[in-house]
Specification:
This protein is α+β, with helices and mostly antiparallel strands and 267 residues long. The protein is 49% helix and 17% strand. Strands 1, 2, 3, 4, 5 and 6 form a six-stranded antiparallel beta sheet that branches. A three-stranded mixed beta sheet has the order 7-11-8. A two-stranded antiparallel ribbon has the order 9-10. It has eleven helices and eleven strands. It has two domains: 72 residues, Phosphorylase Kinase, domain 1; 183 residues, Aminoglycoside phosphotransferase (APH), C-terminal lobe (Aminoglycoside 3'-phosphotransferase, Chain: A, domain 2, Alpha-Beta Complex), CATH 3.90.1200.10. Helix 6 runs antiparallel to helix 7 and helix 8 packs antiparallel against helix 9. A hairpin with a 5-residue loop joins strand 9 and strand 10.
Length: 267
């Protein structure tokens, strides 16, 4: 799978291959430059590769070459991690770094973007889960319907802006990898930072309240609008976890949704 591109782009393997749900990756070097070779395994990942090239290194990892299913991008070699920061007392700083990265991704670009899906299409997965499960997922669905009926500040989204998809590129700052194929209101991307199930503190009321404040300010979003997106997104995330039969993940996202619903009830 990697060999044609190793030869074509004069690359030398620099570590073991990495398998994900939608792609195969190989750390490489071109001359002395560290890079990552990514081979998309489906159409959505191919569009994600095209999106990385379209961003042209502004908020996203720099793309050195892109052809068909293959993407050659710069490799993050900085020593910092947003997830580690968020778990070790630097949650505010991690959120601000992530928000600054997303603002760069959301900025207008010359030329048309790749063919993307709408948020409305993504949220179709929430409807049957809410009907089946009821409870807070019905509130998430109502929030999603209201937001999608009145979109604001629509942009090309990252779609999966969690703490491990924004990496330390040293002097180039924090840059994103692994975007999804979606466009819509920019608030969606910021909600994901609060819902991240990799953070055990995400369901802590004090942490939740603080991060809503920090992210709303850093992103320039009204707190109520951000909370609506958190309620909607956490419900969608719970629906996806349920599709994967992951009750733990779904339970985590339900709790985030309850915190958002309780906060919105005070408005």
């Amino acid at each position: 799978m990697f060999e044609p591109y190793l030869s074509q782009w004069q690359l030398v393997p620099d570590g073991p291959p990495i398998s994900t749900h939608g792609s195969q990756l190989l750390p490489v070097r071109r001359d002395t430059v560290p890079a990552m070779l990514k081979i998309a395994l489906n159409a959505d990942e191919r569009v994600g590769n095209q999106l990385m090239a379209w961003w042209a290194g502004e908020g996203a990892a720099p793309v050195l070459a892109q052809e068909g299913a293959a993407l050659l991008m710069g490799r993050a070699e900085g020593g910092r991690s947003l997830l580690h920061m968020a778990r070790h007392g630097e949650d505010d700083q991690a959120s601000r770094h992530a928000c600054a990265c997303l603002a760069r991704l959301h900025a207008p670009r010359p030329g048309p973007a790749p063919s993307l899906l709408s948020l409305a299409r993504w949220f179709q997965a929430l409807r049957p889960a809410a009907a089946r499960e009821g409870g807070v997922l019905l509130k998430s669905l109502a929030a999603a319907d209201a937001l999608l009926a009145d979109p604001r500040d629509e942009v090309v989204l990252h779609g999966d802006a969690h703490h491990e998809n924004i990496l330390d590129f040293g002097e180039h700052g924090w840059l994103a990898i692994d975007p999804k194929r979606v466009q819509g209101e920019r608030g969606f991307d910021f909600a994901n930072l609060i819902c991240n199930p990799q953070l055990p503190t995400a369901t802590d009321l004090a942490r939740f309240t603080r991060q809503v404040e920090v992210i709303a300010e850093a992103a320039g979003l009204p707190r109520e609008r951000l909370l609506q997106w958190v309620l909607a997104y956490s419900g969608l995330s719970a629906a996806w976890f349920l599709e994967d039969r992951d009750q733990t993940g779904a339970g985590h996202q339900r709790q985030v949704a309850r915190l958002a619903a309780e906060a919105l009830a005070r408005y």
